[in-house]
Amino acid sequence: MNFKVLIITLLLPFSALAKEELKIFTYGSFNSDWGPGPNIEKEFESICNCDLIWNTADSSGALLSRVKLTNNKEGYDILLGLDDSLVDEAKKNDLFIKHSVQTDGLDIDWNDEYFTPFDYGYFSFIYDSDKLNQPPMSFKELAERNEISIIIMDPRYSTPGLGLAKWINQIYKDEASNFWNKIQDQIVITSKSWSDGYGLFLEGESDLVLSYTTSPAYHSLVEGSSQYKSLKFEEGHASQIEVMGILNNASNIDLAKSFLEFSLTDGFQQYIPQGNWMYPVLNLKESQKEFYDAAPLPFSLDQVFPSSEEKDSWIASWEKSIIE
Amino acid sequence: MNKFYFDWGVSFLRLPYLIYLAFIITLFISSLFIFSDIKDFKEFNLLSYLGTIKFTFFQAFLACFISSIVGFFFSLIFYFSNKDPRVISSFLNFCFILPVIFVSFGSIFFYSSNGILSIIFDWLPIDYDMKIFSLKGIIYVTSYFNIALNANFFYRKLINIPENYMKVLQSNGIPFLKSIRLQLKKFIFSGYSSVLILSFIFCIGNFTIVYLLSGSPNLTTIELAIYQFIVFDADLKMGILLGITQLAIILLISISIIGKTTIFNTFTTFKKII
Fold first, then answer.
1. With an 8 Å Cβ cutoff, are B236 and A69 in contact?
2. What's the CATH number for A20-120+240-294?
3. Is the pTM above the cut of 0.90?
4. Which of A40, A56, A96, A145 has its CA 20 to 30 A from that of B206?
């Protein structure tokens, strides 16, 4: 008994010295070696006197599902990387708590009491200008040119895939299912994730791949290659906003709140353009000039915040075209 | 006393069957609760559910059918090559134990639109239009493993045919292939049902190959659908339902093909002993 007391007494000073921990659950690429995670971790730890612990899922599509399945028994404080189309579903599951972070003055319109945005982007098709000389300028032209092959992502499991379903529904509304039918023969692969699909495109499996307007910036600034370009559709491009929120059974809510506040500062945002290859929500057009030059903002469609029923109807119109 | 130990021993032998039976009954009972909430009926996508089951069994039957025929012809080639049986068996076993992911990526590397075959055809020049990310690709890679399994089975049967028997057939002037058709088919195909079931279950449980090579949501097997429902949709109910469906269908097929020879005979033997 005395021995146990001795051990506890000896260990007590160490526990007092232990730093607070903030557990963030995000998708794999965010915390990869080339992603923004490691730099953000250093920046935040230098001001919070805490340990930032990343946990990752394979894709952003699997994040919400995992938290729903486990009811966050794994004890994460923050879920980072949810797509704006999944926000309504996340709220309905009562998994998040309200935040008190000011989101005025951002580069995008945002007003949500549960989630704060950390980056945004526009969906687009990427093509290899060495192979495709005359790229289509609209969805209409794309559907008419049957010789053009496309790789898309499955809208049920991938956020870019869901983004395309949103994009098509924003443009074609009730006729979305017909449009899906028209391009069905051109779709050579419906991949499970963006990285699978993009990798196959780079291997030469298709003429176009669904991605973001910012993708060519990566090839240009990292690889020094200017052959990959983004299509500029005259109908406009649908947007995606990536958000983070505090989980309702977070063990360290104060620290989580301070991370949300930190995410809207230069310390976090500076690593987004050339780390996550998305547009930062703060206006960094001057400090990140080369990024914005390589990935100019496209003509944007209105921002849509769909209900989970609307999201399901987008997927249903895509599924209908496949079954037919 | 001896009778007691004997009875206890027989009961112990029955134990795996009883555990398996209890497991299946538990699964089926739990399935009754799947649609206990009426709201779930609205969410249930019958077309997608039936489509997944249809594709799973379609690709499994097709792969089994192709690999049986090709495997048999390979076994004949090996048999007539008169090579060391140990070398041939080792080669076939090696094909079967290769990691699925290795073979799948190898196929992509070789057959894709930018693969080696495409480069060769381009150089010739001949139009090349093999789509590896399709049903063709799935059947090709799945059959690769099953061909090795089937060829090994048939090859072993062929080399075990008594030499005298073959000499008698030859002395009567019966060609080898005709002798197979007339005389040897029962000998060669005896015990084939278990190999067929093994390769069929392998094809039904197709996950990695379909995950890597299905270029369309239509090409989804039950295993892959279960993974997707749980990982991406957090829909355990659909995962359970699909799992039970797969289990039920495999059980029905297994019992219909080998049930009489294995399961029922075992119980009959127990009864006779008791």
1. yes
2. 3.40.190.10
3. no
4. A56
Determine, for residues B51 and A323 on separate chains, whether the beta-carbon distance falls below 8 Å: yes
Residue with the larger pLDDT of the pair B7 and B126: B126
Q: Would you place residue A224 in the very low, low, confident or very high pLDDT band (cuts 50, 70, 90)?
A: very high
- Residues of A with CB below 8 A from B128's CB? none
Longest Cα–Cα distance in chain B: 83
**Could you give the C-alpha distances from B69 to B64, B147, B184, B202, in angstroms and in order?**
9, 8, 17, 17
Residues B160 and B152: their CA atoms lie apart, in Å, by 12
Q: Are B137 and B117 in contact (CB under 8 A)?
A: no
Q: Which residue's entry shows tokens 């206990």? A: B36
B49-256: which CATH topology? MetI-like fold (1.10.3720)
Measured at the CA of B188, the angle between CA B184 and CA B191, to 5 degrees, comes to: 140
Kindly list the domain boundaries of chain B, sorted by start residue. Answer: 49-256
Residue B57 to residues A267, A298, B223: CA-CA distances in angstroms?
Answer: 54, 46, 12
- The distance of B73 to chain A (nearest Cα, Å) reads 34
User: In sequence order, what DSSP letters do the residues of chain B get, joined into one string?
Assistant: -HHHHHHHHHHHHHHHHHHHHHHHHHHHHHHHTTT-STHHHHH--HHHHHHHHHHHHHHHHHHHHHHHHHHHHHHHHHHHHT--HHHHHHHHHHHHHS-HHHHHHHHHHHHSTTSHHHHHHHHTT------SSSHHHHHHHHHHHHHHHHHHHHHHHHHTS-HHHHHHHHHTT--HHHHIIIIIHHHHHTTHHHHHHHHHHHHHT--HHHHHH--STTS--HHHHHHHHHHTT--HHHHHHHHHHHHHHHHHHHIIIIITTTHHHHHHHHHHH-
DSSP A186: G
Residue A189 to residue B218, Cβ atoms within 8 A: no
The structural domains of chain A, with segments of one domain joined by +, span 20-120+240-294, 122-239+301-323
Cβ-Cβ contacts under 8 Å for A265 (sequence gap 6 or more): A282
Quote the Cα angle for A279-A301-A120, to 5°: 20
Distance of CA B80 to the CA centre of its chain: 27
Mean pLDDT of chain A: 90
Give dist(CA A151, CA B129) in Å, integer: 17
Identify the three-state secondary structure at position A279: strand
- Judged by average pLDDT, the poorest of A7-16, B127-136, B209-218 is A7-16
Q: Do B217 and A69 touch (CB under 8 A)?
A: no
* pLDDT value of residue B237: 82
Whether the CB-CB separation of A243 and A115 falls below 8 Å is answered with yes
Angle at A31 between CA A30 and CA A36, to 5 degrees: 65
Q: Which residue of B has its CA nearest to A206?
A: B113
pLDDT for A136-195, tens place per residue? 999 999 999 999 999 999 898 888 999 999 999 999 988 998 999 999 889 998 988 888
Task: State the Cα angle at A192 between A188 and A198, rounded to 5°.
Answer: 65
Q: Domain A122-239+301-323, CATH 1.25.40.10 — does that match?
A: no
> Which of B48, B131, B233 lies nearest to residue A65, judging by beta carbons?
B233
Number of inter-chain CB pairs under 8 A, A vs B: 53
